[in-house]
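Notes taken during the Thursday session

The instructor put the following on the board and asked us to keep it in front of us for the whole hour. The protein is DNA-directed RNA polymerase. We were told not to look anything up and to reason only from what is written here. First, the residues (136 in total):
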Amino acid sequence: RAGVSQVLNRLTYTATLSHLRRCNSPIGREGKLAKPRQLHNTQWGMVCPAETPEGQAVGLVKNLALMAYISVGSLPEPILEFLEEWSMENLEEVAPSAIADATKIFVNGAWVGIHRDPEQLMSTLKKLRREMDIIV
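Then, after some discussion, the predicted structure tokens were revealed:
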């Protein structure tokens, strides 16, 4: 098969990072369909809506968002337990009127709950990550 491997672009550090975070869609570049080239709603926060090449490959080559991180073999249950200990409210237990004033929490792309003090939660997560108490 042609096009299975690529030479890693090491011109600059950011070019290398961009190349390593690239996702190629296995669709012919000459197709005129618009749907495969558009971002799907489920890709929100995971795929960058701006970084795509111009020309025939527009929308078919996508890049991970800046804050997206792929972890291999991690279960969501320990993360959910941790978030519940730090005042996350489960989505099933929250009134719809209370959601507007809170911050949504997503785990593996699934909306699992809300939090009323996201700055405190983020500072706690960063502190624990830097102390190597959790792996995020």
